[in-house]
Amino acid sequence: MRSIRARLILILMGSTGLVWLLAVGWIYLSTQAEVERVLDARLMEAARMVNSLLSDHRIEVGLEEGTASHVVGEFEHSHRPYERQLSCQIWTLEGSLVGRSENAPTTQLSEVVDGFSETDVEGERWRVFTVENERLGVRVMVGDSLKIRESLVSDVITGLVVPALLILPFLAGVILVSVRRGLSPLSDMADTLSKRAANDLRPLQAGNLPKEIAPAVSALNGLFKRVEDARDRERSFTAFAAHELKTPLAGVKTQAQIALASDDPALHANALRQITAGVDRTSRLVKQLLDLTALEANDAAPNLQAVRAQALLKQSVAELPLPSGGARLVVEGGDGEDALILAEPHFLSLALRNLIENALNHSPENSMVVCRVEEAGRDVRLVVEDEGPGIPEAEISTVVEKFVRGRNRSATGSGLGLAIAQAAMARIGGTLGLENRSGGGLRAVLTVRAAEAGA
């Protein structure tokens, strides 16, 4: 069953019916026990009363055999329905009937000489209380039919069940209305969402909602926020890509037009070199845009694992294309050569590659870019140093932003390398630090937790 409303109605009506049936059963059993107790007390009282009247000679019976008389008194003058059903017999100890009430059977009600008993008399079940009077030599038996008792209990249950059955339709209506009103906030929310435009991602109002629905609305608002952020990233990606790709593509087109318009082989060769450089720059820009978008769109928790920092550094260097400039790339064995770090290899390798590419692009000919691993207490640092112009102190805090290029920019840079490194380190809980070296150049440091400290 897929309808919450129908499910709630069935559960409420089923549970209400079950409680009602259990209540009827409990009332039936308790009423039956109470009726048995009360009626047994009445039997005992009636038998003792007749015995007392006999002892006081207020009732006279013929003790000669065959002279049974009617017992008069309470049994014949009572106007209570149940008491008219009581039957009284007086038997001698020798087994002769000497007195009985008007409606009492002539067959002996019980063989028990004293106390309660149940017996079949003329095909009917009786409950009997017997009192033995040894002084008068008689036994007084007062009994009633168990059918009468069952009829009394049935009348009580009928008095309870019939009104309850009449109330059931009203109770079902109350449940239907209550469930419908209780689920009305969900219907209102669905109606509100159905009327919204596709680009309307405003959060839903959660002021007066029931506490059971508030979490769903909060989750929807969170989803709207994530969708809005994703759309903002897509718009930013489109705008940045259109802006940044326009210049290199225009340059490539210009060089192609120059090559087509000239027959000079030297001019052709220069134009092809410019086209190649433009394609390389465009390719790197597209790759960086895709990397940055993937980082920002990834909401999953990073899969941190223990890896060897030196091995990861060497693998990242090996995946880089050969430097096209005059700088040399060197991996040194520092004091952290055997250090274990807690990181997600993909993100850390992405940050390393962008830092190394950035250092190579800004390094002059015959210079050196050095990479190494250092231990720093509970942290491990992956260091990339170059001999380039460095970054002016006033720009160090802003160069990690997207498409920000400082005064000492390179011809092939796009302003995304440091932003990607910063975003990747934020994903794994690490940090990116930038500082100018005293001898010239830039020192970039990626700081991550050592595996032992993370554990």
Automatic annotation (TrEMBL):
Stated membrane topology is: Multi-pass membrane protein
HAMP domain residues are 180-232
Q: What is its EC number?
A: 2.7.13.3
Per its UniProt entry, what is the enzyme's top EC class, as one word? transferase
Catalytic reaction annotation: ATP + protein L-histidine = ADP + protein N-phospho-L-histidine
Q: Name one GO molecular function term.
A: ATP binding
Q: Name one GO cellular component term.
A: plasma membrane
Lineage top rank: taxon = Bacteria
What stretch or stretches form a coiled coil here?
none
The subcellular location is: Membrane
Keywords for this entry?
ATP-binding, Kinase, Membrane, Nucleotide-binding, Phosphoprotein, Transferase, Transmembrane, Transmembrane helix, Two-component regulatory system
Stretches assigned to the Histidine kinase domain:
240-452
**Chain segments annotated as transmembrane:** 7-29, 156-179
Q: Enumerate the InterPro entries for this protein.
A: 2CSK_N (IPR013727), HAMP_dom (IPR003660), HATPase_C_sf (IPR036890), HATPase_dom (IPR003594), His_kinase_dom (IPR005467), HisK_dim/P_dom (IPR003661), HisK_dim/P_sf (IPR036097), Sig_transdc_His_kin-like_C (IPR004358)
Q: What is this protein called?
A: histidine kinase
Q: Which organism is it from?
A: Nitratireductor aquibiodomus RA22
